Write a sequence for this structure.
């Protein structure tokens, strides 16, 4: 898999013998994360409700297993975690990454919209944790969970209230479960990305705009560091933070939200 220059030295991290589950791993941040975990030696299971044929070759080269799973279903999540645990007898790493956007104002939001967003962004992470934790507590080694939240999970935004509320809830879920399961040596953290280029989520937002270039410039301008570098955030820049959080270097890090958003959640950027 191609990497941006200046990335972490993967040889320094060894996940061999560990099993990692990445939801929403068919594209974007999840795909990059799955690739990095596998390059560091983990046995990775990618779960997505929309698998892409283009991943077959690179995933098989890295020994990444792909499974169809709709994370909105507790039953499918339980089957996924039971399967992943059957590979070595336990689960070491879970990345709750599957997520959907919802750009609508309150008067336009239907109950179905609300459920679609909350079932994917919040309920799935909760039940993913529930069934992974069963397999992380099978011995005293514990495990590590990373939830992929958003800058909207730190500071809500005006254009997508339901998405913002769902990601704020995911941030709360992260802290709450971190508190509950430290005793089990299970760490629960979150990454909070800003606009990440090359993801299906951001591409669909750009596609809906009248001008592609103007939409990209608007996304960049919302994050001061992205503006300074003249580009959006890269999927590898999120994956590297996940790698750190699930590594033994972060053994005392739990309940943390790491913003990788170019400063978007700090406040109003300079005009
Ligand atoms: P993406 O659309 O490329 O990836 C999301 C993946 O989740 C897709 O492969 C999709 O098929 C999968 N998915 C969605 N619903 C699912 C379901 N019910 N069951 C199984 N799989 C499902 O976009 P991405 O940006 O890589 O998204 C990953 C995460 O990053 C999401 O949680 C998103 O909210 C978060 N995020 C993205 C950005 C960004 O700018 N792209 C910014 C902040 C946060």
């Amino acid at each position: 898999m191609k990497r941006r220059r200046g990335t972490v030295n993967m040889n320094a991290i060894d996940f061999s013998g560990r099993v990692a589950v990445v939801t929403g791993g068919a594209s974007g941040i999840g795909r990059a994360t799955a690739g990095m975990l596998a390059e560091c030696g983990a046995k990775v299971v990618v779960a997505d409700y929309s698998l892409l044929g283009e991943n077959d070759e690179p995933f098989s080269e890295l020994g990444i297993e792909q499974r169809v799973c709709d994370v909105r279903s507790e039953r499918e999540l339980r089957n996924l975690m039971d399967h992943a645990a059957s590979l070595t007898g336990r689960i070491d790493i879970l990345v709750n990454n599957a997520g959907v956007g919802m750009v609508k104002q309150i008067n336009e939001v239907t109950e179905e919209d609300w459920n679609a967003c909350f079932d994917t962004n919040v309920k799935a992470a909760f039940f993913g944790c529930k069934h992974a934790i069963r397999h992380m507590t099978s011995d005293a080694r514990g495990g590590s969970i990373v939830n992929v939240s958003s800058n909207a999970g730190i500071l809500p935004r005006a254009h997508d209230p339901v998405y913002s509320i769902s990601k704020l809830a995911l941030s709360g879920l992260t802290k709450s479960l971190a508190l509950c399961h430290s005793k089990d040596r299970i760490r629960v953290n979150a990454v909070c990305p800003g606009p990440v280029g090359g993801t299906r989520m951001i591409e669909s937002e750009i596609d809906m705009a009248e001008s592609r270039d103007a939409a990209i410039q608007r996304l960049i301008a919302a994050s001061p560091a992205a503006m300074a570098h003249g580009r959006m955030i890269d999927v590898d820049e999120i994956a590297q933070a996940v790698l750190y959080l699930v590594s033994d270097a972060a053994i005392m890090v739990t309940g943390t939200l790491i913003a990788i958003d170019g400063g978007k959640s700090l406040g109003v950027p300079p005009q």
